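User: For a benchmark we're assembling, each entry needs the component sequences followed by a predicted structure for the full assembly. Here are entry 17's components. Please fill in the structure.
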Amino acid sequence: MLKVQNLKKYYSTQKAVDDISFEIQPGSIFGLLGPNGAGKTTLIRMITGIIFPDEGQISLNGQPFNAIGDVLQIGYMPEERGLYKKMKIGEQAMYLAQLKGLDKAVAYKNVKTWFERLEMESWWNKKVEDLSKGMGQKLQFVTTVLHEPKLIILDEPFSGLDPVNANLIKDEIYRLSKEGATIIFSTHRMEQVEEICDQIILVNKGKKILDGTVSNVKQQFKQHRFNIATDGELNLNSSHLYEIVQQKQDSALIQLKEGAQPNDVLQSVMQSGNRIIHFSEVLPSLNEIFISLVEATPSARQFQTVND
Amino acid sequence: MNKTLIVAKREFLSRVQKKTFLLTTILLPLLIIGLYAAGIYFSVSGNDSFKVIIADPGKFIDDTTNINDATFTYSNQPENEVNQQLTDKKIDGYIFIPENYDPLSKQAITVKSRKAVSFSTQESIQRKFNQLTEQKKLAQLNIDTTLYNQIKSKTKFDWVTVSDDPKQSGKINSGLSYGLGYGMGLFIYFILFIYGSMVMRGVMEEKVSRIAEVIVSSVRPFQLLMGKIIGIGAVGVVQFLIWAILIITLSTVFNMTIGADQVEQLSSVSAEVKETAITSFMKSFESVNVPLLAVCFLFYFLGGYLLYSSLFAAVGCAVNEDPQDAQSLMMPITLPIIFGIIILNKAVSDPYSTISVFGSLFPLTSPIVMMGRLAHGVPMGVTYWELGLSLLFLILGFLFTTWLSGRIYRVGILMYGKKITWKELIKWGFQKNI
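Assistant: Structure for entry 17:
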């Protein structure tokens, strides 16, 4: 669907995006992660054609990306988003749809359909200034997907939404993805990424530092830790197979040593007379991976001089 | 539909559909006219309340019948009595004519007052006194009054400009040219300010409501900018039409009600005077090339609007939420407009002076200054090649400013939280990669 090759964008004080490449499969939900100021917004702005890359190629469905012609294919909800406050909601949705290139009749039909689906029909003649923040966000989501884009880019779509509305939007994202839309999801809220995304890349200081599916990434960063729980008191001692990281009365977290197999560990624990009711591998959360990868670098991005 | 037009349509409708639109359209010109009328009224009627006694105990003035009016009162009281009135604040001042006053001597006349006497009051006191003493002087010198009036009568002049074009030659009414040129220039001056700042606020709207990034992901920034300029320009044209219709209907109604009976009464009194005044005015109006003037006015109005509105837009996109930022950034734009109105003062009275020629060619001032020169007619006020050159410069000027502010706009519209200076704006305008 989308292929990005060696994308570069240098500003006078920063290498905002420094040689990033990735590919997104059609219909997948793709997580674009990174700390603040990592270059996510610059990357997205290049993909949406708002700014042009210094170097590198973007291709959409195998064709070189065309900032003007491909507008209809892309729906973008930026983090910095707003609405015209004095405009009526129906008119506003119509206006934004027409700006995407829909003609009036199609725009009207689509707005109607979406308003019905999200139970917003009564809003049509209200002004945006009458809406609550959450309602506004719902409207913003609708205006992003009105023109049935093939590629939907959402920057922090859930910030400020209550759980009910967040779920509503989440369900819509799943539905759009099932209908064949590709979704790029930019955030630094890791629990949402784990839940939603198929594939992720992690960007820091303008460079890609991680790329893969969520389960692959977790496998890649696993530390061979296991949870053990027993019925009754847990009798456990560190051995040549494992070390105890944390121990409670009836459960423990252990760290396997180099070369040790889970089966061997289980056997040795059972031989000690424990009645095991639970044994599972603990995979690191994306949050932990994110922090461990990013923490190595200064948290605030420093300004740098660019020689080109 | 073209996206520029979609944007323009929204900008237009969102302003015209506002409830206040019709109200401000009608009230604005009334306010401007009212302001000017009030200014003129106060400058003319400033010395109304000054009361002066002409103290003449020696009865120097024989004919006292026509002296007394709102300002002056004649009195035979001696100086100490009049002085008492002054200290009692019954009068503002007095002129004391000493006994045995000889008007031919260079003896000074004392005027005493409690407060500072304005320049115009001084003038009127001097005029009044000279009038009163004139007859005395003539009698003393044995000069016949009719003879004297004949000497004093002024020679009439006919100012005729000669042109290669016989239609253009003839008497010019410099009063008319002056008024017409000044009026049109002033009008364009207001237009530039009002619609320019309207465009600026319009551009700020996207940033203030934080919708800029959403919009520029579907429209090129230049399309958005042009859409705004065209849409707001269309609002201006509609306001023009409303004013034109208003003026035409008002003057028709005025003519129908007043014209019918009043003119008849007047004509019996001063038919001849009226006839000549009106016909000469109409004749001089005929000497004005109305179609050329109208076309040029429209052209300079549009050119000036496009030129300045794109500059105002560049300022608008650099402003965050603080209107104070806009104030300081607007300075370099408002200066040439004010400079234009200063040059206009010169251009209406002296269209071929160096500063007028410069001002009418320089695209930042030409929409205002050229009006002053054009009112004198072509080629009396401005030569054809100067007019052509000025139009060309204006077109080049607005192409340049829209190009520049289009580039500034692309960067500025996504820039948040930073206070921008003109230096940075110019840098954005000319940087290579965006």
